[in-house]
Protein backbone atom coordinates (compact mmCIF):
# COMPACT_ATOMS: atom_id res chain seq x y z
CA UNK A 1 0.00 0.00 0.00
CA UNK A 2 2.75 2.51 1.01
CA UNK A 3 6.45 2.02 0.45
CA UNK A 4 9.03 4.42 1.81
CA UNK A 5 12.45 3.76 0.28
CA UNK A 6 15.70 5.27 1.52
CA UNK A 7 14.00 8.56 2.31
CA UNK A 8 16.27 11.49 3.23
CA UNK A 9 15.45 15.12 4.06
CA UNK A 10 18.19 17.63 4.77
CA UNK A 11 17.60 21.19 5.90
CA UNK A 12 20.96 22.72 5.08
CA UNK A 13 23.36 20.81 7.39
CA UNK A 14 20.58 19.29 9.53
CA UNK A 15 19.46 15.81 8.46
CA UNK A 16 15.83 15.62 9.62
CA UNK A 17 15.10 12.25 7.95
CA UNK A 18 17.97 9.85 7.52
CA UNK A 19 17.56 6.91 5.08
CA UNK A 20 14.14 5.85 6.27
CA UNK A 21 12.65 2.57 4.97
CA UNK A 22 9.28 1.08 5.85
CA UNK A 23 6.12 -0.53 4.38
CA UNK A 24 2.55 0.14 5.36
CA UNK A 25 0.02 -2.61 4.77
CA UNK A 26 -3.63 -2.11 3.92
CA UNK A 27 -6.33 -1.95 6.60
CA UNK A 28 -4.16 -1.39 9.66
CA UNK A 29 -3.59 1.50 12.06
CA UNK A 30 0.07 2.50 12.18
CA UNK A 31 1.57 4.62 14.93
CA UNK A 32 4.48 6.84 14.11
CA UNK A 33 6.19 7.40 17.42
CA UNK A 34 9.18 9.57 18.30
CA UNK A 35 10.36 12.40 20.50
CA UNK A 36 10.00 16.06 19.49
CA UNK A 37 12.19 16.81 16.50
CA UNK A 38 12.54 13.11 15.51
CA UNK A 39 11.35 13.79 11.96
CA UNK A 40 7.72 12.62 12.09
CA UNK A 41 6.11 15.73 10.57
CA UNK A 42 8.84 16.00 7.93
CA UNK A 43 8.21 12.38 6.88
CA UNK A 44 4.44 12.86 6.81
CA UNK A 45 4.79 16.05 4.76
CA UNK A 46 6.89 14.12 2.24
CA UNK A 47 4.42 11.20 2.15
CA UNK A 48 1.58 13.61 1.37
CA UNK A 49 3.57 15.45 -1.30
CA UNK A 50 3.77 18.76 0.61
CA UNK A 51 7.54 18.58 0.87
CA UNK A 52 10.07 17.25 -1.63
CA UNK A 53 12.55 14.65 -0.36
CA UNK A 54 16.28 15.30 -0.74
CA UNK A 55 16.72 11.63 -1.66
CA UNK A 56 14.60 8.50 -1.81
CA UNK A 57 11.18 7.49 -3.08
CA UNK A 58 7.63 7.16 -1.74
CA UNK A 59 5.04 4.96 -3.46
CA UNK A 60 1.36 5.21 -2.56
CA UNK A 61 -0.70 2.40 -4.12
CA UNK A 62 2.10 2.11 -6.68
CA UNK A 63 2.05 5.86 -7.54
CA UNK A 64 5.33 7.71 -7.05
CA UNK A 65 4.55 10.83 -4.97
CA UNK A 66 7.20 12.85 -6.83
CA UNK A 67 6.29 11.73 -10.35
CA UNK A 68 2.50 11.19 -10.14
CA UNK A 69 1.54 13.58 -7.32
CA UNK A 70 -2.13 14.00 -8.26
CA UNK A 71 -2.76 10.25 -8.44
CA UNK A 72 -0.87 9.62 -5.21
CA UNK A 73 -2.66 12.47 -3.38
CA UNK A 74 -6.09 11.14 -4.35
CA UNK A 75 -5.34 8.08 -2.21
CA UNK A 76 -4.51 10.19 0.86
CA UNK A 77 -6.45 12.24 3.38
CA UNK A 78 -4.14 14.42 5.47
CA UNK A 79 -4.64 16.11 8.82
CA UNK A 80 -1.50 18.21 9.40
CA UNK A 81 -0.23 19.09 12.89
CA UNK A 82 -1.95 22.48 12.58
CA UNK A 83 -5.22 21.83 10.71
CA UNK A 84 -5.60 24.22 7.77
CA UNK A 85 -8.87 25.75 8.96
CA UNK A 86 -10.32 29.15 8.13
CA UNK A 87 -11.73 30.59 11.36
CA UNK A 88 -14.13 33.02 9.63
CA UNK A 89 -15.89 30.28 7.66
CA UNK A 90 -18.69 28.13 9.01
CA UNK A 91 -18.05 24.38 9.12
CA UNK A 92 -20.23 23.86 6.04
CA UNK A 93 -18.59 26.68 4.06
CA UNK A 94 -15.17 25.30 4.89
CA UNK A 95 -16.05 21.74 3.85
CA UNK A 96 -17.56 23.03 0.57
CA UNK A 97 -14.32 24.91 -0.05
CA UNK A 98 -12.19 21.83 0.78
CA UNK A 99 -14.35 19.64 -1.52
CA UNK A 100 -13.78 22.15 -4.34
CA UNK A 101 -10.01 22.17 -3.72
CA UNK A 102 -9.99 18.37 -3.84
CA UNK A 103 -11.85 18.60 -7.16
CA UNK A 104 -14.64 16.28 -6.11
CA UNK A 105 -17.33 16.03 -8.84
CA UNK A 106 -19.84 18.89 -8.29
CA UNK A 107 -22.90 16.65 -8.18
CA UNK A 108 -21.35 14.49 -5.43
CA UNK A 109 -20.12 17.24 -3.11
CA UNK A 110 -23.23 17.74 -0.95
CA UNK A 111 -23.68 14.01 -0.30
CA UNK A 112 -19.98 13.62 0.44
CA UNK A 113 -20.00 16.58 2.88
CA UNK A 114 -23.04 15.12 4.68
CA UNK A 115 -21.25 11.76 4.89
CA UNK A 116 -18.06 13.13 6.45
CA UNK A 117 -20.04 15.33 8.86
CA UNK A 118 -21.95 12.26 10.01
CA UNK A 119 -18.78 10.20 10.31
CA UNK A 120 -17.01 12.83 12.45
CA UNK A 121 -20.22 13.79 14.29
CA UNK A 122 -20.12 17.51 13.52
CA UNK A 123 -23.52 17.87 11.81
CA UNK A 124 -24.85 19.93 14.76
CA UNK A 125 -22.06 22.44 14.22
CA UNK A 126 -22.42 22.91 10.44
CA UNK A 127 -23.50 26.57 10.71
CA UNK A 128 -21.07 27.56 13.47
CA UNK A 129 -18.07 29.73 12.72
CA UNK A 130 -14.90 27.64 13.05
CA UNK A 131 -13.39 30.27 15.39
CA UNK A 132 -16.19 29.52 17.89
CA UNK A 133 -15.52 25.78 18.02
CA UNK A 134 -13.66 23.99 20.82
CA UNK A 135 -10.24 22.47 20.03
CA UNK A 136 -11.83 19.00 19.90
CA UNK A 137 -14.43 20.08 17.36
CA UNK A 138 -11.80 21.92 15.28
CA UNK A 139 -9.87 18.66 15.17
CA UNK A 140 -13.02 16.85 13.98
CA UNK A 141 -13.50 19.42 11.21
CA UNK A 142 -9.86 18.81 10.21
CA UNK A 143 -10.58 15.08 10.14
CA UNK A 144 -13.74 15.67 8.10
CA UNK A 145 -11.80 17.53 5.39
CA UNK A 146 -9.23 14.68 5.37
CA UNK A 147 -12.07 12.19 4.79
CA UNK A 148 -13.56 14.04 1.81
CA UNK A 149 -13.32 11.85 -1.29
CA UNK A 150 -13.08 8.71 0.86
CA UNK A 151 -9.29 8.23 0.54
CA UNK A 152 -7.84 4.80 1.27
CA UNK A 153 -5.10 6.20 3.51
CA UNK A 154 -5.45 8.71 6.34
CA UNK A 155 -2.33 10.45 7.60
CA UNK A 156 -2.90 12.22 10.91
CA UNK A 157 -0.13 14.31 12.45
CA UNK A 158 -0.47 14.48 16.26
CA UNK A 159 -4.29 14.33 16.16
CA UNK A 160 -4.61 14.35 19.96
CA UNK A 161 -2.26 17.22 20.74
CA UNK A 162 -3.79 20.00 22.84
CA UNK A 163 -7.00 18.09 23.57
CA UNK A 164 -8.38 17.56 27.06
CA UNK A 165 -8.70 13.95 28.35
CA UNK A 166 -12.40 13.69 27.33
CA UNK A 167 -11.67 14.99 23.84
CA UNK A 168 -8.71 12.58 23.55
CA UNK A 169 -11.02 9.64 24.31
CA UNK A 170 -13.56 10.88 21.73
CA UNK A 171 -10.97 11.38 18.97
CA UNK A 172 -9.36 8.03 19.82
CA UNK A 173 -12.72 6.29 19.39
CA UNK A 174 -13.27 8.14 16.15
CA UNK A 175 -9.86 7.08 14.78
CA UNK A 176 -10.48 3.48 15.88
CA UNK A 177 -13.71 3.52 13.88
CA UNK A 178 -11.97 5.06 10.85
CA UNK A 179 -9.35 2.29 11.04
CA UNK A 180 -12.03 -0.24 10.06
CA UNK A 181 -12.42 1.36 6.62
CA UNK A 182 -9.11 3.12 6.03
CA UNK A 183 -5.41 2.51 6.47
CA UNK A 184 -4.42 5.03 9.15
CA UNK A 185 -0.99 6.42 10.01
CA UNK A 186 -0.93 8.68 13.03
CA UNK A 187 1.98 10.33 14.76
CA UNK A 188 2.50 11.05 18.42
CA UNK A 189 5.28 11.38 20.95
CA UNK A 190 3.19 9.66 23.62
CA UNK A 191 3.55 5.85 23.76
CA UNK A 192 0.27 5.19 25.60
CA UNK A 193 -1.65 7.17 22.98
CA UNK A 194 -0.19 5.06 20.18
CA UNK A 195 -0.28 1.64 21.81
CA UNK A 196 -3.97 1.94 22.72
CA UNK A 197 -5.17 2.25 19.11
CA UNK A 198 -2.42 1.06 16.76
CA UNK A 199 -1.88 -2.39 15.24
CA UNK A 200 1.72 -1.55 14.40
CA UNK A 201 4.23 0.94 15.78
CA UNK A 202 7.12 2.59 13.91
CA UNK A 203 9.56 4.29 16.23
CA UNK A 204 11.71 7.05 14.78
CA UNK A 205 14.61 8.80 16.44
CA UNK A 206 16.93 11.40 14.92
CA UNK A 207 15.32 10.73 11.55
CA UNK A 208 16.11 6.99 11.66
CA UNK A 209 13.76 4.05 12.10
CA UNK A 210 14.77 2.34 15.35
CA UNK A 211 11.89 -0.14 15.77
CA UNK A 212 8.95 -1.51 13.81
CA UNK A 213 6.66 -4.00 15.52
CA UNK A 214 3.28 -4.62 17.15
CA UNK A 215 2.65 -2.84 20.48
CA UNK A 216 2.56 -6.28 22.19
CA UNK A 217 5.99 -7.31 20.86
CA UNK A 218 7.46 -3.94 21.74
CA UNK A 219 5.96 -4.30 25.22
CA UNK A 220 7.54 -7.73 25.77
CA UNK A 221 10.86 -6.40 24.49
CA UNK A 222 10.76 -3.95 27.41
CA UNK A 223 9.57 -6.57 29.92
CA UNK A 224 12.87 -6.85 31.75
CA UNK A 225 12.41 -3.29 32.98
CA UNK A 226 8.96 -3.95 34.47
CA UNK A 227 8.63 -2.49 37.95
CA UNK A 228 5.65 -2.49 40.21
CA UNK A 229 5.09 -0.38 43.28
CA UNK A 230 3.04 -2.03 45.97
CA UNK A 231 1.79 -0.18 49.01
CA UNK A 232 0.96 -2.14 52.11
CA UNK A 233 -0.89 -0.25 54.81
CA UNK A 234 -1.26 -1.69 58.23
CA UNK A 235 0.58 -2.41 61.43
CA UNK A 236 4.31 -3.14 61.39
CA UNK A 237 3.58 -6.88 61.77
CA UNK A 238 1.15 -6.95 58.83
CA UNK A 239 3.69 -5.15 56.61
CA UNK A 240 6.47 -7.53 57.60
CA UNK A 241 4.26 -10.55 56.85
CA UNK A 242 3.41 -9.10 53.41
CA UNK A 243 7.11 -8.53 52.63
CA UNK A 244 7.94 -12.12 53.64
CA UNK A 245 5.17 -13.45 51.39
CA UNK A 246 6.37 -11.34 48.45
CA UNK A 247 9.91 -12.61 48.90
CA UNK A 248 8.62 -16.11 48.13
CA UNK A 249 7.68 -15.06 44.58
CA UNK A 250 10.43 -16.34 42.27
CA UNK A 251 12.44 -13.68 40.47
CA UNK A 252 10.93 -10.82 42.42
CA UNK A 253 13.22 -8.26 43.95
CA UNK A 254 11.67 -6.61 46.99
CA UNK A 255 12.77 -3.13 47.96
CA UNK A 256 11.11 -1.54 50.96
CA UNK A 257 10.80 2.12 51.78
CA UNK A 258 9.51 3.92 54.84
CA UNK A 259 6.72 6.45 54.82
CA UNK A 260 7.51 9.97 53.66
CA UNK A 261 6.26 13.10 55.38
CA UNK A 262 3.69 13.32 52.58
CA UNK A 263 2.39 9.82 53.47
CA UNK A 264 2.17 10.87 57.11
CA UNK A 265 0.29 13.98 56.05
CA UNK A 266 -2.22 11.94 53.99
CA UNK A 267 -2.65 9.46 56.79
CA UNK A 268 -3.27 12.20 59.29
CA UNK A 269 -5.77 14.03 57.09
CA UNK A 270 -7.71 10.79 56.55
CA UNK A 271 -7.83 10.16 60.24
CA UNK A 272 -8.84 13.74 60.95
CA UNK A 273 -11.75 13.77 58.47
CA UNK A 274 -12.78 10.28 59.47
CA UNK A 275 -14.49 9.86 56.12
CA UNK A 276 -16.85 12.81 56.79
CA UNK A 277 -17.05 15.80 54.49
CA UNK A 278 -15.76 19.05 55.94
CA UNK A 279 -18.61 21.27 57.04
CA UNK A 280 -18.22 24.55 58.91
CA UNK A 281 -15.24 26.89 58.73
CA UNK A 282 -14.79 26.50 62.48
CA UNK A 283 -14.56 22.71 62.18
CA UNK A 284 -11.90 23.04 59.46
CA UNK A 285 -9.88 25.42 61.63
CA UNK A 286 -9.91 22.96 64.55
CA UNK A 287 -8.94 20.13 62.21
CA UNK A 288 -6.07 22.13 60.70
CA UNK A 289 -4.86 23.05 64.17
CA UNK A 290 -4.78 19.47 65.44
CA UNK A 291 -3.20 18.35 62.16
CA UNK A 292 -0.42 20.90 62.55
CA UNK A 293 0.09 19.64 66.12
CA UNK A 294 0.39 16.06 64.88
CA UNK A 295 2.80 17.01 62.12
CA UNK A 296 4.91 18.97 64.56
CA UNK A 297 5.00 15.92 66.83
CA UNK A 298 6.11 13.74 63.91
CA UNK A 299 8.84 16.23 63.00
CA UNK A 300 9.92 16.44 66.63
CA UNK A 301 10.13 12.64 66.78
CA UNK A 302 12.23 12.52 63.59
CA UNK A 303 14.41 15.30 64.96
CA UNK A 304 14.91 13.55 68.29
CA UNK A 305 15.82 10.32 66.48
CA UNK A 306 18.42 12.20 64.42
CA UNK A 307 19.68 13.99 67.53
CA UNK A 308 20.04 10.71 69.44
CA UNK A 309 22.02 9.26 66.51
CA UNK A 310 24.37 12.24 66.29
CA UNK A 311 24.74 12.25 70.12
CA UNK A 312 25.68 8.57 69.97
CA UNK A 313 28.32 9.36 67.35
CA UNK A 314 29.81 12.12 69.47
CA UNK A 315 29.98 9.81 72.51
CA UNK A 316 31.77 7.18 70.41
N1 LIG B 1 11.49 24.04 7.67
C1 LIG B 1 12.51 23.61 8.40
N2 LIG B 1 13.73 24.19 8.30
C2 LIG B 1 14.78 23.74 9.02
N3 LIG B 1 14.72 22.72 9.88
C3 LIG B 1 13.53 22.11 10.04
C4 LIG B 1 12.36 22.54 9.32
N4 LIG B 1 11.32 21.73 9.68
C5 LIG B 1 11.81 20.87 10.59
N5 LIG B 1 13.12 21.08 10.81
C6 LIG B 1 14.01 20.32 11.69
O1 LIG B 1 13.92 18.94 11.31
C7 LIG B 1 13.93 18.10 12.46
C8 LIG B 1 12.68 17.22 12.44
O2 LIG B 1 11.54 18.05 12.64
P1 LIG B 1 10.04 17.49 12.61
O3 LIG B 1 9.13 18.66 12.78
O4 LIG B 1 9.86 16.64 11.42
O5 LIG B 1 10.03 16.56 13.90
P2 LIG B 1 8.79 15.92 14.66
O6 LIG B 1 9.18 14.52 15.02
O7 LIG B 1 7.56 16.08 13.86
O8 LIG B 1 8.73 16.81 15.97
P3 LIG B 1 7.43 17.32 16.79
O9 LIG B 1 6.89 16.13 17.54
O10 LIG B 1 8.03 18.33 17.72
O11 LIG B 1 6.46 17.91 15.80
C9 LIG B 1 14.03 19.03 13.64
O12 LIG B 1 15.38 19.09 14.01
C10 LIG B 1 13.55 20.36 13.13
O13 LIG B 1 14.14 21.40 13.83
From TrEMBL:
Residues 279-290, 297-316 have a biased composition (Basic and acidic residues). Coiled coil: none annotated. Pfam families: ABC_tran. This is ABC transporter ATP-binding protein. Belongs to the ABC transporter superfamily. Residues 2-231 form the ABC transporter domain. GO terms for molecular function: ATP binding. Residues 269-316 are annotated as: Disordered. SUPFAM superfamilies: P-loop containing nucleoside triphosphate hydrolases (SSF52540). Keywords: ATP-binding, Nucleotide-binding, Transport. InterPro entries: AAA+_ATPase, ABC_transporter-like_ATP-bd, P-loop_NTPase.
